[in-house]
Design a protein that fits this description.
The chain is of the alpha/beta class. It has eight helices and ten strands.
């Protein structure tokens, strides 16, 4: 994801993806049909799966034509709402309703700053500044973006911070927060904690591969950020590309909190 800190930091954290590997991955994994998603073989336990295309955005994307985005086959989007307890993305209040009215299923995400304040405090800030959920067929549960350094927290303290965020967000929204992270961050900063996998859907970031490596505890991913640079009609320049692990009925079930 792109925040108001330099994108170069993310390249260091997630590793540099060679142009050749990235082109090979994107060519292999582009949806066969913009409206139905693609059916591919992956390393996940479910074997053959349908992947629906999506994106995640912040104010770095500038002006977005959400109707063009939807017409390009994008089915869902995560939109940055907050960071820490004082930062609100300046484009969130424009993007969020515009995506909804264009027919894009959207959710909000919070960039974690564990060194700033407690998990419960940041969950409340997120909920009150864009992270609310409603059963309107187009709102995904909020997501917690965990990346970067371990913020000076021990693995035990980080596990507590994440749990506290999840618990407060659950109490406020009735939904389990989605966890965005990488396998390496999760291993380094939580010690390979497995308990959260029973509570939160996984949004895994792993670029330039045919199948992502999942953090400890999760047997499958719900979302996969497979690239930090794809082209989408309606957006200038690169945007993060994501897949939902399922068909349109499963995406709607996640949005509506139904079986």
């Amino acid at each position: 994801m792109t925040h108001h800190h330099p994108r170069s930091l993310r390249r260091v954290l997630f590793g540099t993806v060679s142009a050749l590997a990235l082109l090979a991955t994107v060519a292999m994994s582009q949806p066969a049909s913009a409206n139905t998603g693609s059916t591919v073989r992956s390393g996940d336990d479910i074997g053959i799966q349908t992947l629906l295309p999506g994106i995640d955005v912040s104010h770095w994307q500038g002006s977005i034509n959400w109707t063009s985005v939807r017409n390009a086959g994008i089915r869902f989007a995560y939109i940055k709402a907050t960071e820490g307890t004082s930062y609100k993305d300046p484009n969130f209040n424009t993007y969020y309703p515009a995506a909804y009215y264009a027919g894009v299923i959207r959710g909000a995400y919070h960039f974690a700053r564990p060194s700033y304040s407690g998990g419960a405090t940041q969950a409340s800030y997120f909920f009150n500044n864009g992270g609310r959920w409603s059963a309107d067929h187009r709102t995904l549960p909020g997501a917690l973006d965990l990346e970067g350094s371990c913020a000076g927290l021990s693995q035990s303290a980080m596990r507590t911070w994440i749990y506290d965020f999840w618990a407060r967000y659950k109490a406020l929204s009735t939904r389990d927060v989605v966890i965005y992270t990488t396998a390496s961050w999760w291993s380094t900063c939580t010690g390979g904690w497995t308990a959260q996998a029973a509570r939160s859907p996984l949004w895994v970031a792993h670029w330039g591969v045919s199948s992502p490596t999942k953090p400890a505890g999760w047997s499958f991913y719900t979302f996969w950020q497979y690239t930090n640079c794809r082209s989408v009609s309606g957006i200038s320049g690169c945007v993060d590309g994501d897949y939902f692990n399922g068909d349109s009925s499963r995406l709607l079930a996640l949005a509506d909190n139904t079986p």
